[in-house]
Amino acid sequence: MSVPKYKRVLLKLSGEAFSGETDYGIDTPTLIKTAKQIKKVMELGGTIGIVVGGGNIWRGAEAEANGMDRVTADYAGMLATVINALALQDILEREGVTTRTLSAINIQQVAEPFIRRRALRHLEKGRTVIFAGGTGNPYMTTDTAAALRAIEIEADVLLMTKNKVDGIYSADPFKKPGAKKFDKLTHLEALDLHLKVMDATALSLCLENKLPILVFDLQTPHSLERAIIGEPIGTLVYSEDQND
Question: What global pTM score does this model have?
Fold first, then answer.
């Protein structure tokens, strides 16, 4: 059995990871495939925290563009992440993975409140922890929540999954077929080149805390397992004083 290179990881799942080939909602077969990959990580001896997005249900930017108050739109987006978290929790537990959902917004009937020490305790007991509700604050993306939670749980790496994109490119590979794929680059290079790894706030948090980021396509077979054991996959973003 392979030995994980990264013992504790934070996995960021965007709304696209829930909708699969559809444009909206939750695609159960896609979510089952994701759950099986997460289960494999647990079997390898790793521990995993997951931050979920909500774009498959609600897009705050679009609501704001249509005249909705930004703060209200962002809170609605946080509720969408709770729906995704509950759906993922249910499927993970059906796969035999003990899971806890912690929410940054108070919603006691369906999720525990986010308390860092509680999250760490769940991870120490071998449970998968899903973080819902973003950071609990408007104007903050779930990318920022992923970077923050990764730092708080002392993750070895932040895994950023993309849909049908196997890493970071110099431009959108769907619009510019000749775009260059990066195998590795530093946080500063990603910021200077304005590459769309994640939003600038999240990337700056990773830079300041020397948290490596691995960007890859979750739908590639065994991609999560390969990422955990350290196989070359996707694009690695690292600090200048880190060798890999």
Answer: 0.93
